[in-house]
Each structure stands twice: as C-alpha cells, then as structure tokens.
What does this fold into?
Amino acid sequence: MAYELTEQKKVGLGLLGFGILFTFLGVVLFFDRVCLCFVAMKQIFWLSGVALLLGWRSTVNVFTSRANVKGSASFLIGLFFLFVRWPILGIYCGKRL
It folds into this structure.
C-alpha cells in the first residue's frame, strides 16, 4: 500500500502537529521574548517532522535542489533570526518557504 502509515510517519505527523501548536502559542503570546522558544521549537519540529515523513534523503534533496534555493535560504535565515531573538522578522522569513 502506498499510503501505509508506519511508526516513523506517525511520529513525523506528531512533530508537524507540535509545530502547528507551537506556532499558535507563539502568536497568541504576542511574540513575547520569554516565550520565543515556542516559535524556535516550531521550526525545529517542522523540519524534523518533514524529514521523518519524506525520508532523510528526500528532505535533503528538497532543501538542496536548485528550484528551492530561495525557500531554503529564507527558512534558514528565519531560523537564525529566531535564535537571535527577532521573532517577527524570523517568522516572516520562515513563512516565505
């Protein structure tokens, strides 16, 4: 079956769900610097969830293909801005993906 949910894919879906939850919490808490970890964790959960759903090799291919260079760069720049505590700019850059 092509759409069989293995344990790895279930974990990936869970991580994506946590990413959505942490995005919601980050926005609801009005980008508070203390709660900035929610937004940064969203990026990490999203990336690891996609990697588990697609597979590691496919994820690397998606992020390193020539067609997706702008999106990958904006995602990584957004993650950088989140780590240096500029959440609004980081979320804006991360959403460009």
Observations:
- The helical segments are 7-28, 36-54, 56-64, 69-83, 87-95.
- Residues 63 and 72 are 6 Å apart (CA to CA).
